[in-house]
């Protein structure tokens, strides 16, 4: 005897489908372009800030209020450390460009890294400056201010 297949269930409906006036999610391809742009800017800011914290403030120095990141630690390696830290700086600048940061903001970011790189090349004094200057956190703040000022 042949058995009949069970009847297919109706697909589950999303809350947005039940409420036609609900705004689509920012990640939704049908979302308004402004919503997608705002979501993309927020994601870029979050990525850049997370990277900046890792580079400039990843580890707390015991019994002090100071924090140090990979930039400060690798900067202790003469010549190599500062050169290696140009890679994340380049990544952050690329993120800023893709997010639509103003040219003036990207120039200021480049200047912060240039100062960090030039003074960081001075043995010992440069390492202390590098730890205090925190160019990556400065640049993340510049990028946030720029992108958020656009709404």
Any overview of this molecule?
There is one protein chain. The chain is mainly alpha-helical. It has one domain (32-148). 62% of the residues lie in helices and 3% in strands. It contains eight helices and two strands, in the order ααββαααααα. It has helices at 15-18, 33-56, 70-74, 80-84, 86-99, 103-120, 125-133, 135-148, and strands spanning 59-60, 67-68. Strands 1-2 form a two-stranded antiparallel ribbon. A hairpin with a 6-residue loop joins strand 1 (59-60) and strand 2 (67-68). Helix 5 runs antiparallel to helix 6 (103-120). The longest helix is centred in the N-terminal third of the chain and has 24 residues, at 33-56. The model is unreliable at 8-26 (pLDDT under 50).
Mean pLDDT: 81
Count of structural domains: 1
Helical segment count: 8
Uncertain regions: pLDDT < 50 for 5+ in a row?
A: 8-26
Shape: globular
Distance between the termini: 66 Å
Q: Give the number of DSSP strands.
A: 2
Q: Which class do the helix and strand fractions yield?
A: mainly alpha
Largest sheet: 2 strands, antiparallel
| Strands side by side in the biggest sheet | 1-2
Helical content stands at: 55-70%
> What is the N-to-C succession of helices and strands?
HHEEHHHHHH
**Share of residues in strands:** under 5%
| Radius of gyration computed on alpha carbons | 23 Å
């Amino acid at each position: 005897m042949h058995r009949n297949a069970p009847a297919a269930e109706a697909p589950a409906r999303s809350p947005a489908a039940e409420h036609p006036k609900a705004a689509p999610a920012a990640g939704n391809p049908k979302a308004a372009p402004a919503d997608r742009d705002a979501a993309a800017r927020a994601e870029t800011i979050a990525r850049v800030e997370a990277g900046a914290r890792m580079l400039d403030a990843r580890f707390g120095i015991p019994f002090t209020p100071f924090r140090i990141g990979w930039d400060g630690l690798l900067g202790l390696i003469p010549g190599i450390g500062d050169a290696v830290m140009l890679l994340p700086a380049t990544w952050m600048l690329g993120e800023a460009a893709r997010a639509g940061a103003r040219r003036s903001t990207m120039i200021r970011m480049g200047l912060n890294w240039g100062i960090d790189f030039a003074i960081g090349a001075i043995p010992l004094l440069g390492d202390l400056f590098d730890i205090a200057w925190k160019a990556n956190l400065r640049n993340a703040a510049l990028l946030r201010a720029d992108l958020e000022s656009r709404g």
